[in-house]
Amino acid sequence: MILLALTMMAAEPSAEALKLGREIAESGTLATLLPMMRDDEIGKMVKDNPSLRASEQAALRRTADRVFAAGADKLFAATARAYAEKLSLDDLKAAAAYARSPAAKRVQAALRAVIGASMGVMQGMDFKKDVAAAYCKESGKLCAAAQ
């Protein structure tokens, strides 16, 4: 019984594992995607509120930066913990070494453009409708959802 309880208890990740997990998280897709989302959302807020003067827009952007930093810190901490819990220390070290490599730096530099290109294609996709259309063709059912 005690052995079962011990095996069910998750070991707390080491400080080294958490540090490596954070390094990996801060060099991954999320680190590129979050600022893109922030910029898009704040741009929409400014556009949707044309009565804001330039100084108010600047204040709004400062507020957004502060809120974003706090939220990003929570997301990176959670991502770091997940990496630290799911990967061995050797795997974390290897992934972090890759993240520091010249090839990874080039991937990171290209990521914003790559995500933008992918999002452009995704905007024209409707997975739910496409599945309904394929299923309608195969079974004659869900055809209304395919319209």
What is the N-to-C succession of helices and strands?
HHHHHHH
Distance between the termini: 57 Å
Q: Helix proportion of residues, in percent?
A: over 70%
Low-confidence stretches: none
Tell me briefly what this model is.
The chain is mainly α. Helices cover 80% and strands 0% of the residues.
Keywords:
mainly alpha, 7 helices, 147 residues
Tell me what the structure shows.
- With 147 residues, the chain is mostly helical.
- It has one domain.
- It contains 7 helices and no strands.
- The mean pLDDT is 91.
- Residues 73-124 form the DUF2059 domain.
What topology does this entry show?
Blueprint: H1 2-8, H2 15-25, H3 29-48, H4 54-86, H5 89-100, H6 102-122, H7 127-139
